[in-house]
Design a protein that fits this description.
- Helices cover about 40% and strands about 20% of the residues.
- By secondary structure, it is α/β, with parallel strands linked by helices.
């Protein structure tokens, strides 16, 4: 029997609208590379995490809906990922700056700072290691997907997202 979180994620089949492979020359995330070597000045918690072995990928889930965050967290933790949460775009930007996640799942329609504005703010900062970004939205359109792609998004998923599509997108982002 499926857990309630898995059922919440599997309400309908999801589509990955586009996937972007890592840049040529292996400039994507390297699991053997610690957060400390990717970022010249990591926050203290990031440095402590980098020193710990073995490496566990960290995922930041940014969504204003508690049930969505819970379902995503449950699915990702079952796969062995370390998961942090953000309730809005401002918390998402702060989470990237403070925790240096490897992957960020971000909703576009959130209070305080919407997802695209949060992505623009991160893109404008040259002093931060940016995570691989996956957009999750119930309001997907071709133009929104194109804007997200221009901001460095590696996958664009429509809600509700199935556990299989979520796992595939995160695995792709970590390549």
């Amino acid at each position: 029997m499926k857990s309630s979180a898995a059922r919440a994620l599997a309400i309908a089949n999801s589509r990955i609208l586009f996937e972007v492979p890592p840049p040529p020359g292996g400039a994507g995330l390297d699991p053997a590379q610690s957060a400390a070597t990717r970022d010249a000045s990591p926050a203290p918690r990031v440095a402590a995490r980098a020193a710990a072995a073995p490496w566990t990928p960290r995922v930041l889930v940014a969504d204003d809906e508690y049930r969505i965050r819970l379902a995503l967290r449950t699915c990702l933790e079952a796969e062995g990922y370390e998961v942090d949460e953000a309730r809005d775009g401002r918390e998402a930007v702060d989470g990237v700056l403070d925790e240096a996640p490897d992957v960020m799942l971000i909703d576009l329609a959130m209070p305080v700072l919407d997802g695209l504005s949060a992505l623009r703010e991160l893109a404008s900062r040259g002093d931060v290691t940016k995570p691989r970004i996956i957009v999750l939205t119930a309001y997907g359109s071709i133009s929104t997907a194109q804007m997200a792609h221009e901001l460095g998004v590696v996958a664009f998923l429509e809600k509700p997202v199935s556990p299989e599509a979520l796992r595939a997108a995160v695995a792709l982002a970590l390549r």
